[in-house]
Amino acid sequence: MGATLVWLRRDLRLADQPALHAAVERGQPVIPVYIHAPEEEAPWQPGSASNWWLHHSLNHFRSQLETLGSQLILRRGPSLERLRQLVRETGADAIFWNRLYEPAVIRRDQELKKVLRAEGCIVSSFNAALLNEPWCVRSASGDPYKVFSPFWKASKRIGIDAPVLPRPTDLRSPGAWPGTERLASLELLPEKPWDAGLASSWSPGEAGALQRLEAFLGDPIHHYGDMREIPAQPGTSRLSPHLHFGEISPRQIVHALHEAGHDPESGGAEHFVREVGWREFAHHLLFHFPNTTEEPLNPRFAAFPWRESADDLRAWQRGRTGIPIVDAAMRELWRTGWMHNRSRMIVASLLTKNLRMHWLHGARWFWDTLVDADLAANTLGWQWAAGSGADAAPYFRIFNPVLQGRRFDPEGRYVRRHVPELQRVPDAAIHSPWGQGGKRVDRELYPDYPDPVVDLQQSRQAALDAFSVVKKSSPTGP
Fold first, then answer.
1. CA 127, CA 453: separation in Å to the nearest integer?
2. Residue 359 annotated in active site
3. Containing H/E element for 344?
4. Against a cut of 0.70, is the pTM above it?
5. Of 34, 159, 315, 432, which one is least surrounded by beta carbons within 10 A?
């Protein structure tokens, strides 16, 4: 009798798991397998923070399988060779997996399907990661969307509340389990430990995802519309890394909202569901415009005169720009592997506008340091910030980080939490101790903090002057 291989990737959960559910429905032994082949995702192989999360998520998922009398088989790539090997070892006649949407992964999966089917395997893939798949949402003309609002309206017309699949109560085991690699052999954890802040901030795994969702659906969601903009407050769900690794599905989130009595069309729940929709929009764009991971969606920005400065880039990466709210955000990222969404917009604006450095510098740094690093969201966010992407704010809309800090961190709690050198600076000056828009405070109050790497007013004008090059280039674009 045959068996079904369930090839796991970023779908490390038992509930609402379409590939696993379909395998159980076949009535044959189910063999869950994870194949570590990061090179197949080049040029955007998972970064250091993602690998840290993956290690702990795999460990948690393995424990969950063991409660059902099952195992997680770990192998190293190449994926096609390892799947073929497992078919030979187990006598499996079917391979199921859940779909991913990054360009390199799509190409790989399409080739694997072709080859494995030609060799006699039953191969099926499923949607586990999105409310609606990228090719399902089209404008009246049949074209993909480039603006969020009409995309989200179309998504809701199709439907965003599909049923949630139940968690399996048991998994039929094969007569003999194939061999497995040790988790440690995948070498996902850092050689030199830097991850204490990550460990204290996160609980990777399906249980951690469900706990975080339950906590958010208590009190925080009622205030989400306002508190999601305040970086010093725990006002967001922080579900993004759990969603990326498939420890929870967007369908589960929408279902949980209804179960908790929240109307997705009003109040904080509406704001929250729109953020889930923004994630859907990111995958929609990446699927239809796969070149945007490296190139601007708006081709006119190919002519933009970016500048290069290794010193400025390093100051930005390390939170040493001399601009308090930017440095607080970049240090939050380095310590915890995460950054508040408002902060992400502020630091991206400084890098791409005031420092006028290519958005890919920021995208690559976020890719390596964010636990929720997701190629679709990362690409959309950075192209949006640079003004070159879909639904982008006009390029001349340049965030002033001092004003942003005063508005969203008026007492400087966020800044002081992450930039201890500024503890003694009074609230009125915490976002510009050097004196912009107010009186400069005594340098003795912050002797170890750097001066700003850039003049905000002069650099804003320089960015606008550079943008004139784009305006004079070919008008062809979105």
1. 46
2. yes
3. helix 341-349
4. yes
5. 159
Domain stop point among 262, 288, 314: 288
Residue 275 annotated as catalytic = yes
Among the listed residues 334, 382, 384, 434, the single catalytic one is 382
| DSSP secondary structure of 71-123 | --EEEES-HHHHHHHHHHHH---EEEEE----HHHHHHHHHHHHHHHHTT-EE
Number of domains the chain contains: 3
For residue 97, indicate whether it is catalytic.
no
478 prior amide bond cis, ω within 30: no
Point out the catalytic residue in the list 52, 359, 367, 434. Answer: 359
- Is 384 considered catalytic here? no
User: What was the pLDDT predicted at 313?
Assistant: 98
50-78: pLDDT as tens digits: 999 999 999 999 999 999 999 999 999 99
Whether 174 is covered by a domain: the verdict is no
- What does residue 288 show for φ and ψ, rounded to 5 degrees? -85, -20
306 is catalytic: yes
Residue 192's pLDDT band, with cuts at 50, 70 and 90, is confident
One domain for residues 136 and 120 = no
The pLDDT tens digits of the residues spanning 313-342 come to 999 999 999 999 999 999 999 999 999 999
Same domain, 258 and 384: no
87 with 135, same domain: the answer is no
On whether both 233 and 317 belong to a single domain, the answer is no
Which of 278, 316, 334, 365 is flagged as catalytic? 278
CA distance to 78, 239, 403, 434, per residue, from 439 (Å): 61, 41, 15, 8
- 382 flagged as catalytic: yes
Q: Which tens digit of pLDDT belongs to each residue from 278-309?
A: 999 999 999 999 999 999 999 989 989 999 99
